[in-house]
Every structure is written in structure tokens, then in C-alpha cells.
Amino acid sequence: MNSLEFKAGMEKVDIESINSMLKQFSVGTHFQEKLERDSKRTGEYIESILCKLNELPETEEYQEKVDSYLSELNSKIDQSRTFIHIDMDAFYANVEEMDNKELIGQPVAVGSVDMLVTSNYTARTFGVRSGLPGLLAMKLCPHLVILPSRMDRYREVSTIIRNILYKYDKNYVSPSLDEGCIDITEYLKNNENLTGVDVANQLQNDIFEETTLTCSMGISCSPLLSKICSEINKPNGYFYLERQHSQEFIKTIQIKKLPGIGKVRQELLKTLGLDLVSDIIDHRYELYFILPESHRDLLFKHALAIPIFPNKSSFRIHKKKTMISKEKNCKELYDEKDLDDLMKSLFDKAIEMLKSENKYATNLIVKVQDFSFKVTNYSYQLISSSTTTNTTTIITTTTTNSNNSSFSNDDDISTEEKECIIKEEEIDSYYLDSPLSSPSLSSSSSLSSSSSPSSSSISLSVQSPNKLKKTFVYPNNFDEHSEKIWNLFINTTENIAFEKIRCIGLKLLNLINIPLDLENFKK
């Protein structure tokens, strides 16, 4: 069973007692069965790694190779920059307090009786935190106020905060709604009278004045260290780490606090006797031998406090929306009509976002989770494309009936219907396995792109940066595109028993702009 871990605000909580209650609460549930399956897989993985350790080279040549590798990494350390990591305090719960002042001072959590996604600091004094079942939380704190999440509102407030970050660093990174990281190196050069601490204070004041929300910050020479430091003086505080103390500081941090170290590898390192980051260097010969290169590099860079700077693909200002994802828990539904209504609600929200972005989705994934927590993804192609070496940008039309000027998808373009099973590579991450053949779906639905004899298609070719041309076959209009998405969404669940659906969702992937030339052509 997953254990409840300490979170800021829980200093006086008896965590062992709560974990005992949590274990009893989960006995006999599907979730407990899932955890047992995960634990078995983790154990098998660790056993295979331990067997591999029997082949560990013990030669001086091998040890010199590892030491040389670490020396090379250490020689490239760059501590010349200054980063601030911003972590909003109990963000969702505090937004609810911001909008309803009567909640201030009360224990508040956001989520449902099934699971909480966050709690305020008052609730945490009772042991109520994110990841806790709401029913158990009510036992710990009978007067707890549990509110449903309002993601649109949280995004709205997050946008205000991100606009503030933009003033300090146009290339800020914001991996989630409640946190962000800014590089203030240039800002400090342009404001020589300010220090990193001054900027942090200034930033906290700016955010509070705009939103009345508090945040905690970490200031250091790397994004990782700044993130770790932001956890030290929560809530509404900051911690500044001087450059010369970076390596000594990181040695004292628990490995599980490092990003990119999944639960499976955490368990592996724990089995090997590793707890603190300092243990990584002490066990460098074993880790170099058993870990994949990418994980090995990340782990050793963290251990040496080598800053890993964000690349341009991480910059918020450069990010383009490439996916729209909506999903909902179905546990409180009573019949197929409720499921249809829920699916229509998810569909409407996704389509509204797609339309507001003036984009088409080229792929669709329908996600279905059953009560054993198995997730099945049904993947469909919405818009076909091909890549050629022709660099000319063209618009062409193919009309099957010259007496009709309407446009639709080409008869020869069919929708690929594939089913992808999502398996767990690690307990806390997923990957798509190879596609399998999809179940048969109604031929009367819009699962293929076949059209009537009086239809036609619009093909637009655009030149990509690598000089290759990608050709998309666009739908006539947005309504046609959305209808196709709905038909695929609803028909996917037709052959699945209602009582087996725990969670349903849809993802619109690989969003593409509707080219201006195409819009003008259609007009």
C-alpha cells in the first residue's frame, strides 16, 4: 500500500497512525489489488537487477572509467546563473478561499469523496493532504469542507501568475498550474542594485497584490536546487542557497525528492541501501553498471549539483498547444444515460477549446479505465497526411461530381482504427505498447472517411523546416471535424459494458492550425 508522506503543514501529525488507517481503508479494493500487482512487478525488476550486479566488474580499469566519467561531468558545471522556483501554496484550495472569504480559517480540500487533489494548511494539521481518499479525510477531520475542482478557474488564476513571471523572464518555464521557474540572470544584470532575494520578495509581493495568494520560493544557481529549496520554508517563505554550498546541500537531500526518479527506481535504490543523494556517489560503480545511460546521467548530475538548464522546448513562451485532454471518473454514474451525458460534457469542453484555438486535431485517443485500473487507449487518425520532398506549397481539390461544389474528405482516405493497450513500464509512468487491431465498430458511424458521390476533398501541402512537404487532407469545416470526433468517441464505448467503465476520457492530439490560405479558399 502506498504510504502517506510528510507535507508542509503536517509537522504535528501522526503519519504512522494515518498510514495504518489508509491500509485498512484499502483492504479488498481494486486499488489494493493494483498495488499488489505493481509491487510484484517491482520485486521482479529489482531481483533481475540484483542478479546483474553479480557481473559487476571489480577491476581498476573499470573504476577508473567511472571516476573519469564523473570528473568529466563535474568539469562542465556552470553556476553562473540565478534561478527562482515559484511554488504556489495549496493553490487550488487557496483559490477557493480567494473566491469565497467565508472559507478562510476552515479546513478546506479540493477533490471528491474518492480522492483529494489538494488541501489547505488548516486541513493538513489534521493529516488531510492530496492523494488521500475523501471518505478517510472526513474521518480525520469531520468538519472538512470538500469542494469540487474548478479547473477553468484555476487556469484563469494561473494565467495571471504566469503573466507576472513573464515580466521577469520571457522564457519562463511553468510545468504545472501552481509552479514556475524563472531565470533572473539577465534581470539582475539590468538591475545591479538588486539581489536574488530582492527579486524573490518583489515577486511574492506582485503575486499577492494581483491575486491575494501566497507562494514559496527557492533561489539558487540551478532549476533543480531552486525547486528543492522552495519546499524548505513553506508556506509564504523563501530559501536562498549560495553557489559555493550547492554540492554540500544536495548531499543531504533524500533521493526520492529528486525529479525524474520514479517509484520503481526509488525502491531499487532503497534495496541497494541508498537513501540520501550522497549515497549515489558512494555507490557510483554499481549504479554506473546497472542503470540505463539516460537515467544514469540524470542521477549523477543531480548528485554532483550540476545545473540542468531548460532547453527552448521547455520555454513557456515557445510552447504551442499540441493536445487537448478531458477525462472524468464514472463511479457516481447510475446508467447509460448518465454516461452519455458525461461523455457529451467532455466532448463539448474539448471541442470548445479546439475551436477557440482555431485548430484541427489530427489524432484522437479514447481512454477507458476499468475497475481493476487497467487502462485501454483506442487510437484513431482524424486527418491523414503524407510527406514528400516537393517544396512547393499548393492547394488542390478533387471533385467527384462537377455539379456539386461542396467539399468533403476524399473517398480514398480511410481512418485508421487502432487499439493501444497502455501498460505500466514503471508504476508511476506509462508508455504506449504496439497497436493491436481494434474491435469492430458500427459501419454506419463516421469511422471511415468515405463520403457521398457528390463529395470532394481539400488537400493542402505545407513545407516543413527540414524541406520536406507534409500534405494534410482537411475536412470541409469545423462542424464536420467535430462530428467525426463525436462519432468515434461514442461508438468506441458501444461494445464495453457500462458497469465496467471506471473512467472515460478523450485526447485530441497533434493539433494543427487551419492555414489562412485554406480558409480563404473555402470562402
TrEMBL record:
Molecular function via GO: DNA-directed DNA polymerase activity
InterPro entries: DNA/RNA_pol_sf (IPR043502), DNA_polymerase-Y (IPR050116), DNApol_IV (IPR022880), PolY_HhH_motif (IPR024728), Rev_trsase/Diguanyl_cyclase (IPR043128), UmuC (IPR001126)
Domain of life, source organism: Eukaryota
Signal peptide region: none
GO biological process: DNA repair; error-prone translesion synthesis
Coiled-coil intervals, chain numbering: none
Residues annotated as domain UmuC: 83-262
Annotated family: Belongs to the DNA polymerase type-Y family.
Protein's recorded name: DNA polymerase kappa
